[in-house]
Amino acid sequence: MKNINGNNNIKVLPRAFYARPTILVSLDLLGKILFHNTPKGIIAGKIVETEAYLGEIDPACHAFFGKTQRTKIFWGNPGIAYIVINYGIYYCLNAITEEPNIAGCVLVRALEPTRGISVMQENRGIEGLLSLTNGPGKLTQALGITVEQNGFDLTQGELLIHDNCDYSNIVVTSRIGISKAKNEPLRFYINDNQFVSRQNKVIKCFEGTLEIVKEAFYDGIIKVFLKRNNLPL
User: Residue 1 has what pLDDT?
Assistant: First the structure.
């Protein structure tokens, strides 16, 4: 396998990037590049959609019910991959966030393929580009990510996220595919990107530049949400 770390053009996100409030990490992951170094070659895609899960105060988060053998990873180091199986079929990639002993994670919901597209098509068994990685289960299948990568360090090794910023506006909506806390404004995607997952059946809250969206989380409707859940302002 090729050495991603040996590429001078790759600036891997450090652990300090993930050791921050989950919402900020979820927003800042947009536009970044996810790499997987596989026996078939390096596969990569730009992160175009994320979803925040806020640990013990979030009923939709696996950490909500406390530490178990499966969820203890939440209270460890940030920047670690947390792979879950959805509906017993699909693998979903999350990045552990916050300082150690504070639970939180970001679900990577969709990618724009940038490298190894033919391998992705082979892994998915399809040729269509737009439906290749436009969902959390699709992107892991395309990149060859399974439960074997659970616990991988995203700051080194085979599965990495490197710095990049190539987008304009961000859209904030309610979350998708869950029954608890589904209306909270914790799903984010790059506006007008054709690789984003479904855009219907969600509550669209607002949109703006990264700076404007971050401001909104500390002023207005989302400030109310943070207060209601005893999150720091």
Answer: 47
- Give the 3-state secondary structure of residue 120: helix
For the chain, the 3-state helix, strand and coil shares in percent, each to the nearest 5, are: 25, 25, 50
Share of the chain above pLDDT 90, in %: 66
Please state, in angstroms and rounded to a whole number, the distance separating the CA atoms of residues 119 and 132: 11
> For residues 184 and 23, what is the distance between their CA atoms, to the nearest angstrom?
12
Classified as helix, coil or strand, 143 is helix
Q: What would the pLDDT profile of 185-231 be if each residue is shown by its tens digit? A: 999 999 999 999 977 778 888 899 999 898 887 766 566 666 666 65
* Residue scoring higher pLDDT (86 or 96): 96
Measured distance CA(6)–CA(97) in Å, rounded? 26
Round to whole Å and give the CA distance between 117 and 124: 10
Measured between alpha carbons, how far is 114 from 123 in angstroms, rounded to an integer?
15
Q: Tokens at residue 161, please?
A: 């996220």
Q: At what angle do helices 136-143 and 117-124 cross, to 10 degrees?
A: 110
